[in-house]
């Protein structure tokens, strides 16, 4: 009697556990199958809608890099000259990224503080400012850039404004996440001595969040360099514009395209390395600061 | 004790003062540096010249076009034929014998009523523009030029007249007269022919009428006329949006699948061999460093323009990014769980499957979904370069420089698409990774 009573629940639990496992495995199996089917059919569909097929094109992937490289090698004596020639365009691309990151960080800082609980100037408007940031983040840079190129004419400024606009939204979101972790004590202290909102933010919040802000802004700078190169390709000046011209000249002028590829690649890698070094320094520096305090 | 404290006091004080001085200097120098840089950029970007070349007219045209459209009433002065078409496009042409209701046709005479009491009259041999508050302008285009006569007084600046061409631009519309052609633009609010084009039997019907007709068995035909609307091309737009999302989906998840095994080879705790690790890390750097732009150009040469090229460009760039991120998360896994699995006699693959993957899945998945989100935007941009998806339609509509209502339509769609993808991936993230970021 007592024996079976003891055994019964354990068998049940066991059976239930196995049934549950089976169900879980079935669900993940179905999910995986759907995912695989989506990927496969997606690639097949994309392949059919592409101008050239995947399998016919596969062996040609290296043709273009090969012809660029071989031409660059043939005319390697001219390469330094090309690099010097396109250097100003590179500087312009970097300038676009830097200025838009600066403006974006400034705008993002203000918006993020207006959109953080506890810090907001007008707490009722927090959802409004959040929505504004969402919209700014959602607009792809190319949309604004193309409209502004039509109105303002080609050049770096439309690209700068477009990237800055997007950056405000992107950094604003990250900054407001940082703000949520900021201690409110300094803010309250400043409020008690009669500081106004701007003073509370600049003196009470900024010192706490500056390292994190800087680290996010550095990542954004990296992303913005890529974005400004791409926008150049659609007519906003800088190295992307030169690249487009160099490629459209076609065979025989690929040496300048090679020079631009090299410049762009080196810049991206260099900025990547620098920013990760500085970000490392920022987090380490903060640790040292905490130890001293 | 007190002695030492007193001895330290001056040095502490001077130290503090020094720190303050440095901070004050920094607080001044940093903004100054930024300002100097911005001033440099102001001139490097040639902002003064840009302000000079900026075309306010283009801006006004763009804004006006986004919420209004114009109907052309064109008279061929040789044959005397009058044609009505929306935006002057063939697709928007009124069928023979029909005309907008603000026009009245009686034999050779066409009377066009414009807002604010303005009226333009086409006669067999001359044109009249009745402008309340200014007077009557008449013109008889023919062999001697336009032969326009204006009310007495100084010519206002909104009239641009020469021997062979007269253009009158008012708030109510625009009249252009040349020897061969007389044309009136009349502006109306809204997006023209958004649902049905003029050749569709359903054009001009109210929503109620459409619904009752649909209920009467014409739903298929109605849907067909709307879906294949030649002006707005709803079917192509839907395909383009789908293609853009598809590029992002294939690129992101393809990259994740490719990067996961490679990340093991680049993680310190799974690949003790320094050479292999370094080789894979540099490979990731290479894939990331050769930006999506360059990948797109290279791949477009091999595969031609299209969504496949865009998907592969995203795939290659993100394989580099994911490889780096994944290997960093793999380096942070807890060894204890792997030990535990090992103690049961599991082989390496099983150890990875049951000891490592469950630990890193939430982190990796949330990274992948974040990339998916931002890649929807990138796919729009890449589509503009490589020719696929909504990005291409957007650039094409912009290049014509007149279909700004279509441009604004696409912009709205792109923003909605990005919003939808953001909330979808956010929802998925919350469903798949329980307990993740409950706050914020």
TrEMBL record, chain A:
Membrane topology: Multi-pass membrane protein
Lineage of origin: Bacteria, Pseudomonadati, Pseudomonadota, Alphaproteobacteria, Rhodobacterales
Keyword Transmembrane on entry: yes
Highest taxon, organism lineage: Bacteria
InterPro entries: MetI-like, MetI-like_sf, PhnE/PtxC
Domain ABC transmembrane type-1: 90-275
Record keywords: Cell membrane, Membrane, Transmembrane, Transmembrane helix, Transport
Cellular component terms (Gene Ontology): plasma membrane
GO molecular function, one term: ABC-type phosphonate transporter activity
Classification via SUPFAM superfamilies: MetI-like
Name of the protein described by the UniProt record: Phosphonate ABC transporter, permease protein PhnE
Main location: membrane
Record carries keyword NAD: no
Protein family: Belongs to the binding-protein-dependent transport system permease family.
Cell compartment(s), UniProt: Cell membrane
Record NCBIfam families: PhnE (TIGR01097)
Species name: Pseudooceanicola antarcticus
Residue intervals passing through the bilayer: 26-46, 96-120, 141-165, 257-278
TrEMBL record, chain B:
InterPro entries recorded: MetI-like, MetI-like_sf, PhnE/PtxC
Alphabetical UniProt keywords: Membrane, Transmembrane, Transmembrane helix, Transport
GO molecular function, one term: ABC-type phosphonate transporter activity
Domain ABC transmembrane type-1: 241-425
Membrane topology: Multi-pass membrane protein
Keyword S-adenosyl-L-methionine: no
GO cellular component, one term: plasma membrane
Pfam families membership: BPD_transp_1
TM segment ranges: 247-271, 292-316, 352-372, 379-401, 407-428
Keyword RNA-binding: no
Cell location: Cell membrane
Family recorded in the similarity comment: Belongs to the binding-protein-dependent transport system permease family.
Name of the protein this chain belongs to: Phosphonate ABC transporter, permease protein PhnE
Organism encoding this protein: Pseudooceanicola antarcticus
């Amino acid at each position: 009697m007592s024996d079976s009573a003891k055994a019964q629940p354990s068998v049940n639990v066991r059976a239930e556990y196995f049934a549950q496992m089976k169900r879980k495995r079935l669900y993940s199996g179905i999910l995986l199958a759907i995912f695989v089917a989506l990927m496969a059919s997606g690639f097949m569909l994309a392949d059919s809608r592409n101008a050239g097929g995947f399998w016919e094109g596969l062996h040609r992937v290296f043709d273009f890099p090969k012809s660029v490289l071989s031409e660059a090698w043939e005319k390697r004596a001219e390469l330094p000259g090309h690099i010097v020639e396109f250097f100003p365009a590179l500087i312009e691309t970097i300038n676009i990224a830097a200025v838009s990151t600066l403006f974006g960080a400034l705008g993002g800082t203000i918006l993020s503080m207006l959109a953080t609980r506890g810090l907001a100037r007008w707490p009722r408007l927090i959802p409004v400012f959040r929505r504004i940031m969402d919209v700014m983040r959602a607009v792809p840079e190319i949309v604004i850039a193309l409209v502004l190129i039509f109105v303002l004419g080609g050049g770096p400024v439309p690209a700068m404004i477009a990237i800055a606009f997007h950056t405000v939204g992107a950094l604003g979101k990250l900054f407001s996440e940082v703000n949520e972790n900021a201690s409110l004590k300094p803010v309250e202290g400043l409020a008690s001595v009669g500081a106004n909102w701007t003073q509370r933010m600049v003196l009470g919040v900024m010192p706490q969040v500056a390292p994190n802000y800087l680290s996010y802004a550095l990542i954004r700078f990296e992303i913005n360099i890529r974005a400004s190169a791409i926008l150049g390709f659609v007519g906003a000046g800088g190295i992307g514009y030169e690249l487009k011209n160099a490629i459209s000249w076609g065979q025989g002028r690929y040496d300048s395209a090679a020079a631009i590829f090299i410049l762009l690649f080196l810049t991206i890698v260099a900025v990547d390395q620098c920013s990760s070094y500085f970000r490392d320094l920022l987090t380490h520096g903060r640790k040292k600061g905490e130890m001293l305090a | 004790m007190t002695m030492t404290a007193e001895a330290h006091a001056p040095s502490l004080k001077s130290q503090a003062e020094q720190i303050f001085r440095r901070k004050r200097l920094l607080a001044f120098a940093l903004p100054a540096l930024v300002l100097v840089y911005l001033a440099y950029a102001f001139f490097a970007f040639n902002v003064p010249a840009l302000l000079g070349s900026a075309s306010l007219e283009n801006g006004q045209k763009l804004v006006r076009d986004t919420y209004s459209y114009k109907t052309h009433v064109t008279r061929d002065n040789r044959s005397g034929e009058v044609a009505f078409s929306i935006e002057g496009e063939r697709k928007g042409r009124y069928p023979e014998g029909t005309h907008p209701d603000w026009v009245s046709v009686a034999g050779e005479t066409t009377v066009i009523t414009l807002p604010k009491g303005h009226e333009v009259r086409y006669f067999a041999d001359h044109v009249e523009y009745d402008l309340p508050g200014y007077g009557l302008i008449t013109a008889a285009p023919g062999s001697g030029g336009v032969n326009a006569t204006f009310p007495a007084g100084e010519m206002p600046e909104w009239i641009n007249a020469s021997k062979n061409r007269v253009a009158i631009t008012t708030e109510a519309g625009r009249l252009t007269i040349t020897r061969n052609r007389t044309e009136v633009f009349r502006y109306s609010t809204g997006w023209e022919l958004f649902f049905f084009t003029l050749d569709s039997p359903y054009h001009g019907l109210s929503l109620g009428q459409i619904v009752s007709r649909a209920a009467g068995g014409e739903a298929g035909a109605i849907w067909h006329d709307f879906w294949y609307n030649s002006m707005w091309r709803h079917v192509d737009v839907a395909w383009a949006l789908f293609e853009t999302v598809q590029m992002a989906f294939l690129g992101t998840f393809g990259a994740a699948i490719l990067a996961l095994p490679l990340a093991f080879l680049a993680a310190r705790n799974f690949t003790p061999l320094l050479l292999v690790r370094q080789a894979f890390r540099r490979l990731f750097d290479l894939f990331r460093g050769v930006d999506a732009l360059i990948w797109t150009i290279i791949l477009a040469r091999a595969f031609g323009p299209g969504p496949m090229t865009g998907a592969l460009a995203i795939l290659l760039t993100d394989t580099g990014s994911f490889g780096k991120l994944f290997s960093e998360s793999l380096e942070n896994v807890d060894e204890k769980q792997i030990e535990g699995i090992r103690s049961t006699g599991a082989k390496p693959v099983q150890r990875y499957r049951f000891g490592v993957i469950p630990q890193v899945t939430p982190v990796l998945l949330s990274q992948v979904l974040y990339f998916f989100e931002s890649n929807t935007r990138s796919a729009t941009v890449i589509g503009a370069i490589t020719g696929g998806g909504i990005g291409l339609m957007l650039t094409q509509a912009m290049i014509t420089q007149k279909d700004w209502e279509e441009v604004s339509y696409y912009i709205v769609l792109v923003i909605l698409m990005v919003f939808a993808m953001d909330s979808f991936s956010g929802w998925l993230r919350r469903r798949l990774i329980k307990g993740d970021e409950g706050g914020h």
